[in-house]
Design a protein that fits this description.
heterodimer, A: about 50 residues, alpha+beta, two-stranded antiparallel sheet, about 50% helix, B: about 220 residues, mainly alpha, about 65% helix
Chain lengths: ~50, ~220
């Protein structure tokens, strides 16, 4: 933890690995939020009405 | 004496304010027990998690402010609260950005919600300043390093005459008092605006599908 972070240097892109990993996790979490079903919720208002 | 409650003709500003509030923010909008169908998505949870993280940021910050830097650096309980404050800030920012992405791709400024969006933008900007002043308020070498490196950048913007990153008292005062008050007030206003206009429907659902308990079923 007391060491400087490693960096990805690709062309003009320079970003630390911890930041890049965090951004990757955020994108993955965002994608999961779009596709994962919400608990106790049907896929359409018509189906919900029938419950 | 005749009651004036409900008298539409009165010129009183309190009556006018009351009528405005009753019209724009009825109780069923302020404290709803049902939400429209499309709110059943994890994307709508990001904002709530951001608020939950803000609560932890404020609570842990109050404890840190009460006991001071020696305590949060040298005692185990102090270091725990220091970490709690730090990591709740990380959660706050991560989920605020996820909330921003969700609302951006939903174009959530639609249908008269531009003020809600703008308040969110300003809150985000002030939160960044609050985080920066937090790094300067740690009372360790890291804070000194950040302050020494930041002073030239801040001075180059022209605000250095007022915003002096080397002035610990100013940075700490901004961090524990003025900026939190601004953020909490803006978040409160943001929530009120969401309650007034309702949660933005996904693109393509402008017709607002009606289900039992739909807020706008009137």
């Amino acid at each position: 933890m007391d060491q400087p972070a490693g960096y990805l240097h690709w062309g003009f892109i320079l970003i630390s690995w911890p930041n890049l990993i965090l951004i990757g996790l955020m994108v993955a979490l965002f994608a999961l939020a779009l596709v994962l079903p919400f608990p106790g919720h049907s896929s359409s208002p018509e189906k919900e009405k029938k419950l | 004496m005749k009651s004036r409650v409900g008298d539409e003709s009165t010129g009183s500003w309190t009556a006018a304010a009351r009528r405005q509030l009753e019209r724009r923010l009825p109780w069923e909008n302020l404290l709803p027990d049902r939400q429209p169908f499309y709110v059943g998505s994890w994307v709508y949870v990001f904002g709530v998690v951001t608020i939950a993280a803000l609560v932890w940021v404020v609570l842990s910050g109050v404890v840190l402010a009460a006991f001071g830097p020696q305590w949060w650096h040298l005692s185990s309980v102090g270091r725990f609260f220091n970490s709690l404050h730090f990591w709740s800030v990380q959660v706050f920012f991560v989920f605020m950005v996820l909330h921003l992405w969700g609302q951006y791709f939903m174009a959530s400024w639609r249908e008269g919600r531009a003020p809600t969006w703008m308040i969110g933008v300003v809150t985000f900007a002030i939160s960044i300043v609050a985080a920066f002043t937090g790094y300067l308020s740690q009372q360790n070498f890291d804070a000194q390093y950040i302050a020494m490196n930041a002073k030239d950048a801040v001075n180059s913007t022209g605000v250095g005459g007022f915003f002096n990153v080397l002035n610990f008292g100013q940075m700490y005062g901004l961090h524990v008092m003025l900026l939190p008050i601004a953020i909490i007030a803006l978040v409160f206003l943001h929530i009120i605006q969401v309650r007034m206009k309702g949660v933005v429907p996904p693109i393509g659902h402008e017709a607002r599908p009606v289900v039992a308990g739909d807020l706008r079923k009137k």
